[in-house]
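User: I'm putting together a teaching handout on how multi-component assemblies are represented. Below are the sequence lines for each component of a complex, exactly as they appear in our records. Could you produce the 3D structure of the whole assembly as structure tokens, so the students can see both representations side by side? Please keep the chain order the same as the input.
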Amino acid sequence: MINLSQSLSTRHSGSKSMEYSYYPGCSLHSTGLEYGLSTRAVFEALDIGLVELEGWNCCGASSAHSFSHTLALALPARNLALAQETRLDVVTPCAACFNRMKSADYSLRNDAKTRSELESIVGFQYSGEIAVRPLLAVLYEDYGVDAIAARVRQPLTGLKVVPYYGCLLLRPPEVTQFDDPDHPKVMGELLQALGAEVKPWSNATDCCGAGLSLSRSDVVQNLVSRLAERAREAGADALVTACPLCQVNLEMRQTKDPKMPAFYITELLGLALGLPQASQWWPKHLIDPRPLVTAVGFAVE
Amino acid sequence: MLTDLMSETNGLAGENIQLCYHCRKCTAGCPVVEAMDYGPDQLLRMVALNQQEVVLSSRDIWLCAGCYTCATRCPNDIDIAAVMDALRQIALREGYTAGERDALLFHRLFIGVVQRLGRSHEAFTLGLFKVFSKTPLMNDVGAGVGLFLRGKVPVFPHRSGAASDVRAIFQECLTHDQPEPKPVDQAFRE
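Assistant: Of course. Below is the structure of the complete assembly, with chains in the same order as your input.
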């Protein structure tokens, strides 16, 4: 678990350059298109370098582990091997990709037998010198909340939101090593730094139904509709996520009107940083967030 | 037929389900328990009682969304999500029909596309799922069109250069997971 008080201090000096290897994962080229676009734009605006892994593969989430434990670790281990060659910590925006890659890293680090098996299957030697980081950790722990607050051009005053973490960023905690699995704070503090009104609620770490979306859409409809309902009861007008599967489930499977949009955290960062590209992200949503964005005083094209 | 489902499950999952004392925290917090027939704690008990048929043909093992809520809350540190993964793997290996046919179909299509292309490809997976699943053909057509119009389901797959490496990894893992060949006389007695 991270030390939150320590993380609150601003560690971004502004002079030292920050650079990471970058694993976008499949969703950021498809259903999570605006997550990929906004991540690129925000990291560029904050002068955080991203070196995309060349020839990366799908990590197998959320299906490989139904067939083979070895396959579920070997697929992300290959990406980890690519990242290791860059000698840069690897940042992953997708919660599921992060979870799979961190699980592979955890096994490689702690289990000698699995390490030698994976090394032989993937054909590399694990050095353990780089860390697997979720996007939120890079923003919160490395760049720092204060440094982000200092870059805000137009605060998100009047935007009422609830942070929604879902499952795979936080659980299982001994693997993810990120924030508090029961009472996570990172996203709420980031959103506050952007000037948004963060509403407390009890469902931040509930499951959206994940990979059941196609085969049992009824189950997922119940789960996300309940989430939207609870968010509205908490006084929020939107949910904020850092997971492409959560986001698409939230926007595709809500059944009750009025439907509540789900923003990616990077989209709201881009908006508060005054990035002109933000207007290109909103039309990608299945639930149009533009009425809400204009209602809190932002122009949309 | 397995000799003992519990030791098989424990071995594959790297867990020890005898530690369960049925506090039912897992079942109480399970987000999909409403759709299940038994729920996680009953399933653990049935595994301990070697009720292979019921467990391995149950829909519950395919409904687990892998959210790790149970694993995080279990006072005995049983990673129940890993147990569910192990039960799915055993069910497939032993030739059981999946209790949630379409859930398995989705996983098969998803992983089949990854095996061939090195990356997942929504348009292929969604299209094939529509053709082979038992969900009504018109379900989700609106959502699919919505995604397509927003440029979110590219029709042509991206060539990543990873495909041949990934195929090799699949092959290696398949070989790795094969159980040791049994001595002839033992196989004969079974």
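A couple of points students might notice: Confidence is low (pLDDT under 50) at residues 1-11 of chain A. Chain A touches chain B through 56 residues (CB under 8 Å).
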